[in-house]
Amino acid sequence: MKRYLLIDDDEIFNFLHAELIRKADNSASIDAFTSSVEGLNYLIALVENNEPLPDFLFLDIRMPEMNGFELLNELIKLTSDKIKDIKIFMLTSSLDERDKKTASGYSIIKGFIGKTFSIERLNEIIVEYG
Amino acid sequence: MSTVQEYDKLLDEYRELQLRATKLVNVEQQLINTRDRLDHELELYKRLHAFNSDALKESSNAEFSSLIAEAIVDIFEIETSVVLFLNKGIENNRVLSIEGSLFNEISEDDIIVSLTCLAEITSEKKTVAIDRKLLENVKAFSKFKEALFYSFTDHELGYQFCIGGFVSIENAPLYQKLEERHEAFFGLFYQQVQSLFANKQKSEKINSQISKISASELELRKLSLIATRTKNGVIITDKEGKIEWVNDSFVKTTGYLLSEVVGMKPKDFLQREGVDAEATKKLSTSLSNKENVEVTIVNYSKRGKPYYNQLEITPVFDDNGNHVNFIALQKDITAETIAQQELLKVNSRFEIITQKSNIGIWDFNHLTNELSWSDLLYAQYGISEATFKGDLFEFWKEAVVLADRDRMVNDLMNVLEGKETMLDQEFEIVRANDKSVRIIKGSIIAEKDAEGELIRLVGSSIDITESRQAELKLKASEEKYRSIIENMNLGLVEIGKNGEELFSNKKIKEITSLDNPGVLGLSIDYEQSLKDKINKGLISGYRIIGDSVFEIDYFSKDDKKINLLVSAAPLLNQQGGIDGFISIFLDITQLKMLQKNLEEALHERDSFIQIVNSMKLFYESILNHSPAEIKVINPDLFLTYANSLILDNEIGMEEKLGSKISEIGEEGSQERLRYNKIVDKVQQAVDLNRMIQLEELRYDKNGEERFLLENILPHYNTDGDLEHIVISGVDITDLKKVQFDVLQKNEELKKINAELDNFVYSVSHDLRSPLLSIKGVISLVLSTPDLGEKNAQYLKLAESSVLRLDGTIQEILEYSRNARLEITPTEFDIREMVDLIFADLKYASKNHMDYILELTGPAVVVSDKSRMNTLLKNLIGNSVKYSRTDISDSFVRVEISSATSYLVIKVIDNGEGIAPKNINKIFDMYYRGSSSSVGTGLGLYICKEILNKLNGAVTVKSIVKVGTTMTITLPILKK
User: Fold this and answer.
1) Who has the most CB within 10 Å: B22, B30, B228, B797?
2) Residues of chain B neighbouring A84 (CB-CB closer than 8 A)
3) Does A64 touch chain B (CB under 8 A)?
4) Cα nearest neighbour of A101 on chain B
5) Is residue B36 a part of any domain in this protein?
6) CB neighbour list of residue B511: distance below 8 Å, 6 or more residues apart
């Protein structure tokens, strides 16, 4: 059973993406947060309590309070290499080159997905990283 | 038993000792470790210091950063170092330096992205040592074990710096583990880099001013070169007469080195007490009155050799009439002076020769027994007629020395008695007034009447003491004199009354190459005899030099012109009659030449002085017209010069001249503080032996606030001694203002640009985001199995509207990006780009198509990546969009040939094609190929705009129902 974590401030996307994930992987266990801070706290709590971490994290870039990269920086600072097994994919609807460039520096970021992601792309990801 | 006990006791003691020894060894080891650690730290400090001084010399950012990179590897003994300066304002303004091989496999762009990523993760913390766990999160650094890293953003300069040192896992055993002290040193190092960089940036801005100043410095050098090269000695003293500088000729003449005499007054070592008192007095009077003075004075060289120094001293004043320096020109004229003196001696010898003899006469009347003496006779005997009382004969007898007295009386008796009628005598007397013994030559003649009776005696008397003594001396050294006369440098000719040659010495024969040089001898009327000689063709001309001294022009047999100085005197016999004439000749041909040379030298000196003066004026005018405020201070910190600009601008500058700059202004005043700051910098400039800059704030005479950039430049002479310090201040108030304005404008522009950027970013996100979620929901509903056909159709209509709106938004974004953003050349793989576009289109398109890419030449090209992406996406997208649905072998083929300077891209399809009448419209704004097409009709318009920006061109070939070929030609950009 794979664990999926969705962090996106747009509830519809979380809903859509959850639906798509379920279609691609019917045994999926999915958690979703619309607040990046809550999502970060959830992940930190998992690390601190030594609980199993999600296999996949779909992280939206543009969010209020704390954007996707900021969330990632905090996570790395606080948990160091303990989160290195999470496959992180950045979600974007902005098509912005700068975001792609920034993302390319992080080894933990496995990919960059334009919203909404297609079921085909999801299947590829699950096959490659599952 | 006691032995056993003792043995145990000894054993215990032995163990105890062993334990202590072990402890001692441990302590010793600890000490050694500590010492090693301290040694290492010291070494680090030394390297840090060395880096600092090297870095100060580097000029360009690239050199500077590569020096830092080298320093990191050197100082911290780390595997690979990296330095990044990123100008936040401009995309491609960056400097990256790497020392070491760890990044060899990684592209520059990736390194920069990774460094900024690491900077984000560490978020500019003070902690600089980074372990493996943190490094793993950065893609490019995941193979590294540990690192020293520091990043900082200077918002004022708009720069981000990252510096770091890295050790790979592989090679970690070869390197020292990074510890706290590494961190501490790295922190120090970083601070140094930061301040060096900030200084460098500032200094670059004013480089133009520096070059102006160095140009005037060059002129000063030229001036000093002239002074160095002249044959005359040049001395420059300060206003107190202490030597500041002398040239090489001075060193040659006097034997004193510059270093020996700096700070000394010339008179203290060149002159001797009591020698040439008159000239010395003249000199010191003129100097204290600050007047020009020319004297010839006897000076002494270092070895004590006297020489005649022709000295000309000029006081130098600045514009305001303040006395600043003396410049002294000196010339060694010993040779000329000696020749002149020789001449004078010859003249005085003539005077002796021409002195007339004094003859005294006495008369004895035999009939009256009266004896009378002439005045001269009285004088010969040291008495005067007026005061003499007594009998003259008795006086005379007493006067004659005892040895001669009887003989003399006897002689007299013989004449009286008629035994002799004429008699010559020579005897000695004691002169009455000074009791000196005189030799007298006398003669007595008896006058008799017809009967032979004696009437009277007449006697003459000459005091021949001097001539006799001279005669004696002459006799005694006759040989010597003969040889002197023969060999002397003066030609000598003696002729008789009638012009016959009596004597001529060797020299005159040598000079004239005549066998009978007597023909040149002068007689009676010297001038007349010279005229005769011209008539005879013996000489070609003469000039009167003085009383009985002439210069004659004589041509020798080989027709060489010889200048002779001749002085003549009559040759007198003892009676005062003229026996002949002596002419003395001096060959002054050489002297004349010397004189000519001297004149030339003097002329040269005059023109030199002229040059110096005009140069001086020139420099002063340069300095006075300089846009910089220039002041000069001497090594004792006294203000010696200020140009007109500073005098105009700075309050009370005139009063400051000549005072010590550390004492300007009241204690604790703003003025004093400002000058103390300058004093500090002067000290620094002298210590470092280079220019130091100082920015300061000053109020000018109008009370306005002015910013000055002072360049403090120590000036050394050729011997490396500090001569003075030039402080040149440039008013950078306007510059500052402009700089400030520009910075502010720039900031505003940046802000506006950033706002626009954010706006576009927000629009693209905020508009697209809900649209995409609608699209997602629609496709979710569409995938529901029990959806009615009609509902599905409605939803598809809705979906296509959504897609069209999304397309429109994207196109608007692309258009605005192209219009707004600067061209940023980037290196990228064009094959990857086309493949990604293909992949996106494959997902989007429902029709089956073949996607073909053919590439010739390198895949990695330099162009504007984002624009190229938009361009290709639009062109390839059009091929897909307008593919034919009635055929099954639709394709789009992209042919790229990349060369060094041009990139040619062809997008070929077998789609619908464009009708000839429409071909000219396709690049128009809002033109759409068909009403069913998605988008605004901006796609190809944007392509054309992009090509305009990138200096590219496009050609279209199309046949309806056959296909379209778009050919794009683009110059390869330079990074």
Assistant:
1) B228
2) 136-137
3) no
4) B113
5) no
6) B491, B556, B562, B564, B585, B587
How much helix, strand and coil, in percent to the nearest 5, is found in chain A? Answer: 50, 20, 30
Contact A81 B110 (CB under 8 A): no
Judged by a CB distance cut-off of 8 A, whether residue A58 touches chain B is no
Compare CB distances from A95 to B113, B764, B780 and report the shortest one's residue. B764
Residue A36 domain boundaries: 3-129
H helices of B383-522, where? Answer: 392-399, 402-416, 465-476, 478-487, 506-512
The reply to whether B136 touches chain A by the CB within 8 Å rule is yes
d(CA B871, CA B939): 9
Burial class (CB in 10 A: 0-12, 13-18, 19+), A15: middle
Q: What is the pLDDT of residues B564-581, one digit of tens each?
A: 888 888 877 777 788 888
Between chains, do B776 and A115 touch, taking CB under 8 Å as contact? yes
Count of CB atoms situated within 10 Å of the CB of A2: 15
Angular region, B631: left φ>0, alpha ψ -120 to 50, beta rest: beta
The number of angstroms, rounded, from the C-alpha of B127 to the middle of its chain's C-alpha atoms is 46
Average pLDDT, chain B: 80
Residues B523 and B446 in one domain: no
pLDDT digits 0-9 by tens, B861-891: 888 888 899 899 999 988 988 888 888 889 9
Say yes or no for a CB contact (<8 Å) between A102 and B813: no
The domain of B373 spans 359-463
Cβ-nearest to B121 among A10, A73, A120: A73
Looking at the fold, whether B661 and B577 belong to one and the same domain comes out as: no
- Is B113 an interface residue toward A (CB < 8 Å)? yes
Looking at the complex, report in whole angstroms how far the Cα of residue A37 sits from the nearest Cα belonging to chain B.
17
Tell me the pLDDT tens digit for each residue of B283-336. 788 778 877 777 788 888 888 788 777 777 777 766 566 777 777 777 777 766
**What total of structural domains would you count in chain B?**
6
Residue A46 has a pLDDT of 93
Same structural domain for residues B146 and B58?
yes
Closest-CA distance of chain B to residue A105, Å: 5
* ipTM confidence: 0.72
Residue B155, token pair as written in the block: 């918002």
